[in-house]
Structures are given as structure tokens and as C-alpha cells.
Amino acid sequence: MQAQLSEVPRETEARTYLASAPLPSSFYAGRDDLAEVRDRLVAALAGDAPLTVAMLALVAGMIAEAVAFHAADVGGPCTPCDLHPAALCDEHGSVLDLIDSLVVLAHDLGIEVSR
What we know:
Number of domains: 1
Largest sheet: none
Number of strands: 0
């Protein structure tokens, strides 16, 4: 089974982020091929290589960790949020946009992600 990535702009943002994001901590144990895995991941995210079942599982872990990390980072409103007319500062808005793009990519790949 191979998943297909689309050229939807929000997915492009998520793919770009994942190409340089840390690999899931659970993935490191006993591995000595991390550079090779990273190269295959970057190629798959760019659409230059198939997104295999194993790579899809890796992407699922990366998305889950990234969403959890960034959701915790947003926390709640800050002083700039309080002062902004939309009650959301640019920094928190960017983080929420990234989370949304990761969730859209996950959904399109058939990966369930909780926010």
C-alpha cells in the first residue's frame, strides 16, 4: 500500500515542516540508519519516492508528536493575544495554522490524530 500526497497548500506546509522535524523518540531505539531513513522520508514527503506502509507509520508518529508538542506550546492567550483585535497574536496564529495543516495532511493520509 502506498499513500499519495497532494499539492494542497496546507499539506505542502505540513510536508515541509515534517521534512526537518525530529523523528519520533520511539523510533530511535537501536537504530543506526537514521540518516538513511531521514533521506527516504524527505523523498517521500516531496513526492519523489513512494510513501510505504512503514513510512506512513513513521509520518503518523511524527504528526502525533508534532501536534502534541505545538498544542502544549500554544497553551493559552498571552499578552500580545490580549492586545490583538482578533485576540490571537501572530505567533500563536502561526502555531495553530501549522497544527491545522498537520491534521489536514494526517486526515488525507488516513491517519487519525487527536488535537
